[in-house]
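Researcher: Please predict.
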Amino acid sequence: MSLQAAINPLWLVHKSVYSPEAFVAERKDVLRKVWLFVAHESEFPEAGSFVAREIAGDPVLISRGADGRIRAFYNTCRHRGAIVASQEQGTARAFLCPYHNWSYNLDGSLRALPGAEAYEVIGFRKEDFGLAPVRLENFCGLLFVCLDPDAPSIEAFFGEELTGLMRRTLGAARYEVYRKDVFDVKANWKMLSENWRDGYHVPNVHPKLAKGMPPQRYKLTDNGHCIQYITYGRGFVADDVWEATQKHALPGLEPLTGFHFHLFPGLVIQPLNNQLQILSQRPVDARSTIWERRALGVVGDTPEVRETRVKCWTAWSSNQVAEDIVVLELQQRGIMSEGMPFSIMARGEEVTEGIRGDDNRMRQFWNRWRAMMGVARNEWRPHGT
């Protein structure tokens, strides 16, 4: 019996799941069906602040209106379909289509159009032709969109336990982004999702971090999400960093504790002791992903407190992404080899709770992926056959 035959087939991942053909299907069957993080509310500081993103292949525009409310729309003119906001972010008084100069208010309503009298004879009404809305939810300051009008609510998507923990931590204070980094990772988006669920690599890729965050339990929750519990140890840090680490725990957290919240399909929220980090991704194609990292502090932090948070984030968290990108891009280069049709995720028992190094969290990801893609195994063939 071959090694491959001896392993549960659902613990194998065929290289076809990382193909361009699979990526096209994922946009329709996964990425369009779930709630996806797009930004934090603090990134929209005033009326007219906007962000434009491509989500599951569709252009989406998020803007703060004159009434202070943040809304999302398809970034597509209702006249002839041109992109309305071509910049990735900025501030605007209104949105003007460059093709025929149809303009839209910050709330998405149609503001004006040239030669409006020519439309009056056909009974045209401006109120019927605003930008098409996209579902948006503000959950504890985190902005999520969903392209499926029939998808469950965001709290149903999170599940009761995860919703409660996030409200206890993220909802205990108002936060603001003080640093944002963007990385162009030459790897399939699912490799990034797997990586954040894979504790097995931590001692090898993040050896310093492994010494300061000893293994703690994780718990699998509803809809493909999971919770990783965190505690801090003395670890590798210098005396002054360890002293800072013991100060200013985030509201809702006990000192020297924290969480990794892993949200399907590919978001990580990390309230960690006295720092908060959000790691999100924007799939570009089958071999390229934009990875965004946000570091946040509490609104109203004194300069001394904010300095402490930055110091701890720099010491404990800032190197993780760069270290991961190196191995992820090597994985992308190697995993499509003809000589290796399958990779394995067979570490640990099939349980819903365990320690950091087990593969249960990755297997949970693939369980959810299979269910949404309508396939029986972790592989992709034309039409899912």
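Model: The two ends are 26 Å apart (CA to CA).
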